[in-house]
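Private note to self, pasted from the team thread so I don't lose it. Backbone tokens:
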């Protein structure tokens, strides 16, 4: 009997025991703070987002097609990557082996394989240089990274210069304006320009154009020759009368002789 009582008392005491409350551990502060004021990514001329810290080649080929994306309808690409992309996408008809030399969907340009110079694109007569450059960037355009670096720098020149001036200097739809542009000055995109300070040269041409007045100065009125000059000229040479006056005088003399 006592054992039973002890057992009942022990069970009652256990029922009144309060469980130990374990306080949750405080969350550790993150090692670095997350800021909402991060670097704003830049936008490349072809519309692609350029993440901070990317190299020039990464910026140039940031939108190149891949086996996964299959995006081949716009942008600038390395020819080899473009071939892989179109074949993977099941559209091999978009590829031509001539494209290894360079190609653009911008119809304003002569193609490298037509000109005979790899990675060289020349603007056709009567075309807007600014619009042609925009279409070149929109693509699809196939070129090596040096040529793409050239066109990217050229786009910066166009942006700072403005479309009107850019067309006036390098290619215009206006026939009379376009006819005055020297052939050597017409817009050209070429890998050979990669080591040439062409941007400075284009800006120098624009500066020279700004110095020429928009309207031609009035031509001076034609000088009327004096009929008879009585005063001696410098050096002691006496001016001769005008030929018409001599003829009139001779006529008068003949009339007097036969009168």
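Design output:
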């Amino acid at each position: 009997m006592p054992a039973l009582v002890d057992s009942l008392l022990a069970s009652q005491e256990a029922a009144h025991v309060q469980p130990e409350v374990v306080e949750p551990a405080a969350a550790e502060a993150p090692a670095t703070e997350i800021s909402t004021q991060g670097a704003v990514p830049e936008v490349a001329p072809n519309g692609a987002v350029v993440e901070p810290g990317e190299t020039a080649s990464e910026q140039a080929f940031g939108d190149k097609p891949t086996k996964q994306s299959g995006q081949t309808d716009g942008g600038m690409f390395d020819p080899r990557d473009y071939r892989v992309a179109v074949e993977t996408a099941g559209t091999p008809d978009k590829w031509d082996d001539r494209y290894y030399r360079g190609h653009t969907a911008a119809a304003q340009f002569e193609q490298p394989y037509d000109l005979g110079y790899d990675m060289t694109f020349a603007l056709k007569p009567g075309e807007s240089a600014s619009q042609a450059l925009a279409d070149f960037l929109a693509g699809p355009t196939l070129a090596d990274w040096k040529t793409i670096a050239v066109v990217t720098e050229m786009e910066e020149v166009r942006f700072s210069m403005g479309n009107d001036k850019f067309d006036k200097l390098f290619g215009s739809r206006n026939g009379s304006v376009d006819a005055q542009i020297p052939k050597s000055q017409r817009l050209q995109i070429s890998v050979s320009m990669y080591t040439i300070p062409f941007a400075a040269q284009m800006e120098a041409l624009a500066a020279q154009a700004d110095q020429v007045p928009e309207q031609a100065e009035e031509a001076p009125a034609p000088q009327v020759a004096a009929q008879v000059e009585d005063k001696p000229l410098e050096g002691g040479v006496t001016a001769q009368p005008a030929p018409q006056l001599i003829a009139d005088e001779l006529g008068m003399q003949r009339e007097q002789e036969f009168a």
